[in-house]
From TrEMBL:
Lineage: superkingdom: Bacteria
Record-linked Gene3D superfamilies: NAD(P)-binding Rossmann-like Domain
Protein name (Swiss-Prot/TrEMBL): NAD(P)-dependent dehydrogenase (Short-subunit alcohol dehydrogenase family)
Any single Pfam family the record assigns to this protein: adh_short
Record lineage: Bacteria, Bacillati, Actinomycetota, Actinomycetes, Micromonosporales
């Protein structure tokens, strides 16, 4: 079977896992990378590993390949990109989802997450930029030559609406980091357009990830999205024949769900 090939970063759990599995259900070959692996151990008390996600992709009808990769290590990122090229020769979609910015929150720091910025540890900023925005830039830069050769292709960067319009209930570091992700997607779009490589940011709503469900008592989950529901929108977006008309934009998952007739709540 002639499958399209995707690389989803940060895919051991959460939104990344949902996107990877949805792509598998659509018949893709999906490389999924994260730090959590069976042999390497987990970076969190939350469940999930790259091997489990890879198996879920395959079980859904695709071909899943899980690789442990610390996206803060440029050499590991380059090595995995080289492996994708050597073994498959093509890359049609890169999903930038790796995000260390939630680590402290997922570990239970709900009060810290909601504190004013002067009461938050400076390490929170570093996690969001070194383990988030920078990882997206590096992976995109490393993959750009292969994406250009495989075009039409796309880079989808998972962001959040707080990047476009600051929500006073959200933290300063979080708001600035997501704004940086949005600008990264837009700026890359300008340089990749001539090669038919689209670059967009996507805004999930509240998603019922393993991390979010820890704090269910604090949240209204009545209309929350599911990780695979978000993934179904990304899978539809990736094969949209009009994708280049959307390049450079930040797209709400809810709007994409309406565009493609996708259910994102189950």
């Amino acid at each position: 079977m002639d499958r399209k090939t995707a690389w989803v970063t940060g895919g051991s759990r959460g939104v990344g896992r949902g996107i990877a599995v949805a792509l598998g259900r659509a018949g893709w070959t999906v490389w999924v990378s994260a730090r959590s692996g069976r042999a390497a151990g987990s970076t969190s008390h939350l469940p999930g590993s790259v091997e489990e996600t890879a198996q879920a992709i395959t079980d859904a009808g695709g071909r899943g390949i899980g690789v442990v990769c610390d996206h803060r290590d440029d050499d590991q990122v380059r090595a995995l990109a080289d492996r994708i090229e050597a073994e498959g020769g093509a890359l049609h979609l890169l999903v930038n989802n790796a995000w260390a910015g939630y680590e402290r929150l997922n570990a239970g720091e709900w009060t810290e997450w909601n504190a004013p910025f002067w009461q938050q540890p400076l390490a929170l900023w570093d996690a969001m930029f070194d383990g988030g925005v920078r990882t997206h830039y590096v992976t995109s830069a490393v993959c750009a030559p292969l994406l250009r050769r495989t075009a039409p292709s796309a880079i989808v960067t998972v962001s959040m609406e707080v990047g476009a319009r600051h929500d006073p209930h959200q933290g300063v570091a979080y708001s600035v980091a997501k704004a940086a992700d949005d600008r990264l997607a837009a700026a890359m779009a300008g340089q990749l357009a001539a090669d038919s490589v689209a670059s967009v940011a996507v805004y999930p709503g509240l998603v019922r990830t393993e991390g979010v469900m820890q704090f269910a008592e604090h949240l209204d989950l009545s209309s929350a999205q599911t990780p695979e529901g978000v993934g179904r929108c990304v899978a539809a977006l990736a094969v949209d024949p009009q994708l280049m008309s959307l390049t450079g934009q930040a797209l709400h998952i809810a709007d994409l769900a309406a565009r493609y007739g996708v259910n994102v709540t189950d």
